[in-house]
Design brief:
Low-confidence stretches: 1-7, 210-218
Structural class: alpha/beta
Order of helices and strands: HHHHEEEHEHEHEHE
Number of helices: 8
Number of domains: 2
Largest sheet: 5 strands, parallel
CATH architecture of the largest domain: 3-Layer(aba) Sandwich
CATH topology of the largest domain: Rossmann fold
């Protein structure tokens, strides 16, 4: 069930689209109920798409991030992928998406401050795509001089991020990790890592992160 939720089938907007389709089918037999379901799910989908409602909900999610005052217990840093811009073979190779790049910047900041080994986690959506972990590892090494100790290039969901990362670091007796991801993603990420047997400490990338900055002096 956890993996299913990570795929998003039971979360908006997918669940609202499914409810709309279900309502359309039900309307063939129970017109009133089916039409009402279509209207309600469509209205909810519209509201979630408006900036005010979306921002309010994201803020509520971000409030769920626990205060982390015990980073001294962390033994490693884990940065989660968030997408790749697909290229065109050798002439235009795949590159990190903007969200992934933002997380890489904050992972480098965490490394400068904590001096802990780094793990990158993120697979591929399409077979021919370069895995997020491969691109994140290259960016950390090339652009920030940050070595990567572990690389998970198989995961496709948040739950798999946690599962495969735990499998990589367990032989090193690592029990507590700093998880680098966007603030709105942290509650789910922390939950997944705890379920995978790793004590997870938050290192949030803020939602209003709008530009890359040098961190040489961090």
């Amino acid at each position: 069930m956890s993996d299913l939720i990570s795929y998003g089938f039971l979360t908006p907007p997918a669940v609202l689209i499914l409810l709309s389709l279900a309502g359309a089918l039900l309307a063939l037999r129970w017109r009133g109920f089916g039409v009402a379901l279509v209207i309600l799910s469509s209205a909810a989908l519209y509201l979630l798409a408006t900036p005010l409602v979306a921002s309010t909900l994201l803020h509520e999610v971000e409030l769920g991030i626990p205060e982390s005052t015990a980073l001294s217990s962390a033994q490693a840093i884990v940065v989660l992928g968030a997408g790749v811009h697909l290229g065109n073979a050798a002439s235009a190779p795949d590159t990190l998406g903007s969200l992934s790049l933002e997380r890489v910047v904050y992972a480098a900041e965490a490394y400068r401050r904590l001096h802990l080994p780094v793990a990158v986690s993120g697979g591929r959506v399409y077979p021919a795509q370069t895995a997020e972990a491969v691109l994140m590892r290259a960016a950390l090494d090339r652009d920030f001089g940050v070595p990567v100790a572990w690389s998970d290039d198989q995961s496709r969901t948040t739950y798999e991020n946690a599962f495969y990362t735990a499998r990589l670091v367990n032989p090193e007796r690592i029990a507590a990790v700093v998880v680098v991801t966007h603030a709105w993603h942290l509650p789910r990420a922390l939950w997944a890592f705890e379920r995978a047997g790793l004590h997870a400490l938050p290192w949030p990338v803020p939602r209003d992160f709008v530009r890359l900055r040098r961190i040489d002096d961090v």
